[in-house]
Design goal:
Length: 441
């Protein structure tokens, strides 16, 4: 039996007491950190992937600054028993939130949001199914929300929908958000992004806000390079001032009701008030959702005299002042385009392995020929003899001609070797009944 001296006994007791004290101190610190703090500031989005552990969730929270020490947070989760039942998803949490509330949100799924990104240049036709899938609501509810008469009146929109005013951005909607609430938030985002300085541009350009948003939507669909947005806007404003039709392809695409990669000549005849190839002036409303850059370009167009432009292969546009210059630019762009490779020519091949027997004295075996040897043997001269191959085809046999006739029956053109033809050719006056064997190898 192991016996401890009084000195060893008291030393071990002191070690245990220090260990218990440290554990109690750590626990007190953890619970103090868990209960302290006051939420403040804007909500921060945190993504907890599906299958993530509590430790990975702690790292994600630490990267966004919502917690200070991921190690201490993991210890707290273990002590509190909340490290084994976290729900994946996107959360909106505010800085200063106590740890106990964060763990409770991760366990109960509170603070979960649905994230959606609306790209610049999207139309309501594209936004509607995307928003319906994100919110898990019927598409009909989104279609009704974008026709909200209160919002249309508030923004003084003459069109029947909010096309162009659903601002392209990334949104995080809490779980349970309705389609009407989401659309209103997107429209409010448009109002927040509207620069008051653009109102003075409306007077200079002699247009209203709906016209400016419409012009910005066309620029959004046309521009590929950011520095060309203001120039493209200037081209269309110049055409409007001269009474010319805009002839903008994005308006035709919108009139068609579906996206086409390239507008064809037949598409230019579609009857719609949005078709600027047929109708002068701006279309009745926007044809897409423009971003801030396109709105700024429509409010402050470049000071250039151009009336035409054509897109090139690398995405930039060539701008011109006259129709003749524009036509020349189109020819130059087409000249630099890569020529299409001709389609490969397909050659008819003979049936492999076919074998045709014409008469007992004439046998022709046809294969894909690599080499052809023709043998002709004179048997017995007769006056007006005809070859057996000729009898079967109803044609006269003249040496090489009989060989050609036999090969035609299997759709393979075979040329006889001239050096082997010693009799039976058209230049010979002798006629003989011949036995011809053609072998293709």
């Amino acid at each position: 039996m192991l016996t401890l001296s009084p000195q060893q006994f008291f030393s071990s007791r002191r070690s245990m007491f220090r260990a218990d004290s440290r554990s109690a101190l750590v626990a007190a610190c953890l619970f103090a950190a868990a209960c302290s703090g006051q939420p403040h500031g804007a909500a921060t989005r945190v993504i907890i992937p599906r299958g993530a552990s509590f430790a990975q969730a702690a790292d994600s929270l630490a990267r966004t600054g919502l917690i200070g020490s991921p190690k201490m947070f993991r210890l707290y989760g273990r002590f509190a028993g909340g490290d084994r039942n976290i729900k994946p998803g996107t959360y909106l949490l505010r800085h200063g939130t106590p740890w106990k509330d964060i763990v409770s949100a991760l366990n109960g799924g509170r603070g979960l949001v649905n994230t959606i990104t609306i790209p610049e240049g999207y139309t309501l036709l594209q936004i509607t199914p995307l928003l319906a899938r994100t919110l898990k609501v019927p598409a009909d509810s989104v279609q009704a929300a974008v026709r909200d008469t209160a919002l249309l009146a508030r923004l003084d929109i003459p069109s029947p929908t909010l096309e162009g005013y659903v601002f392209p951005d990334t949104y995080a909607f809490p779980v349970g958000t309705t389609a009407r609430q989401a659309v209103r938030e997107m429209v409010y985002s448009f109002e927040r992004r509207w620069n008051p300085e653009w109102d003075s541009s409306l007077q200079d350009l002699k247009i209203n806000r709906n016209d400016l948003v419409t012009m910005a939507s066309i620029v959004e669909k046309e521009a590929r390079l950011p520095e060309e947005r203001a120039v493209i806007a200037a081209v269309y404003y110049n055409r409007l001032r001269r009474g010319m039709r805009l002839q903008a392809d994005p308006t035709v695409q919108y009139a068609l009701g579906h996206h086409v990669g390239r507008v064809l000549y037949k598409d230019l005849a579609v009857e719609s008030p949005y078709n600027t190839y047929l109708h002068k002036g701006l279309p009745p409303g926007p044809v897409a959702s423009p971003g801030t850059a396109s709105l700024a370009a429509a409010a402050h167009p470049a000071n250039v005299p151009y009336l035409y432009f054509v897109a090139t292969r690398d995405g930039h546009h060539e701008f011109r002042m006259t129709l003749d210059e524009h036509t020349s630019a189109i020819r130059e762009v087409r000249a630099t385009a890569p020529k299409k490779k001709p389609a490969p020519r397909m050659l008819a091949l003979a049936t492999t392995g076919s074998r045709t027997t014409i008469t007992p004295t004439s046998r022709t075996t046809s294969r894909i020929p690599a080499k052809t040897v023709s043998k002709t043997t004179a048997i017995k001269p007769t006056g007006t003899a005809k070859s057996t191959a000729a009898k079967s085809t109803g044609a006269k046999s003249t040496g090489a001609k009989s060989t050609s006739t036999a090969v035609k029956s299997t759709s393979t053109a075979v040329k006889a070797t001239p050096k082997k033809l010693t009799t039976g050719t058209s230049s010979t006056k002798k006629r003989a009944s011949s036995r011809t064997t053609t072998t293709s190898r």
